[in-house]
Amino acid sequence: MATSKEHWEHVYESTPDAERSWARKDLKDSLNAIDRVAPRIPCAIIDVGGGVGDDSITSHVAFDDGAGYILDISAAALGINSEERNQWISIMGVNTSFCVGDVLTAPLPQVEVWHDRATMHFLTDIKDRRRYIERAADHIVPGGGIIVSGFSTEGPTHCSGLEVLRRSPSELTAEFSEYFDVIDAYEADHITPTGAVQRFAWYLGRRK
Ligand SMILES: C[S@@+](CC[C@H](N)C(=O)[O-])C[C@H]1O[C@@H](n2cnc3c(N)ncnc32)[C@H](O)[C@@H]1O
User: Fold this and answer.
1) Total domains, the chain
2) How far is the CA of 34 from the centre of ligand 1 (A)?
3) For residues 197 and 189, what is the distance between their CA atoms, to the nearest angstrom?
4) Residue 110: its pLDDT value, please?
């Protein structure tokens, strides 16, 4: 496993939502990217390493009858009290299901859109990155879209105290090119709650 569950449970239990470095004021960047890659909206969508929050990406774009999926290695991140790992849990009246699990091993649904902001960059081992890409390719329908963003080559070397693998937009494009056609790849700044600037690379692709 590339990152430890214990690390993330501790982070979510000990730091208020608004103080985490990846916290953002709104979901605009992700929702704009989803508009560009989704074959249709509403759609079946997974948010990988989706974390917690009152406002989830899936609640904006998933079907009402529940085709939104949030996967996270931490139960605290998802705001659920579950020791169950690798099981998708539906909550009545919510259009999203939740699963506590590792993106490299958890059961995954078939989706039209895969969204990952700041999770793949923790996969510093090339074999894990390869597995991640193959799993994404296996679970996105042909014509479906993928969005992956993480620290760019000018971004920080660590996130939440863990080492990350920084990638430029063109490096991400090359990594995904076997299974995905690039729609766009670009850099954008994220301003942390303490005012630090973090350079992100965004990759938007279409499953071949
Ligand atoms: C930096 S946070 C980003 C959270 C959210 N995507 C966002 O942009 O606000 C990284 C998230 O990925 C989760 N995570 C880390 N490694 C993971 C893995 N191998 N599988 C699934 N989730 C993971 C963490 O628990 C955390 O919620």
Assistant:
1) 1
2) 18
3) 6
4) 98
Comparing C-alpha atoms, which of 197, 49, 190, 22 is closest to residue 114? 49
Q: Which residues line ligand 1 (CB under 6 A)?
A: 2-3, 8, 22, 49-51, 71-74, 77, 102-103, 117-119, 122, 159-160
* Average pLDDT of the chain, as a whole number: 94
End-to-end CA distance of the chain: 28
Per-residue HEC secondary structure of 174-191 comes to HHHCCCEEEEEEEEEEEE
Q: What CATH number has the domain bearing residue 80? A: 3.40.50.150
Q: What are 57-74's pLDDT values in tens digits?
A: 999 999 887 799 999 999
Rounded-to-integer distance, Cα 205 and Cα 208, Å: 9
Could you tell me the residue range of the domain that residue 133 belongs to? 5-207
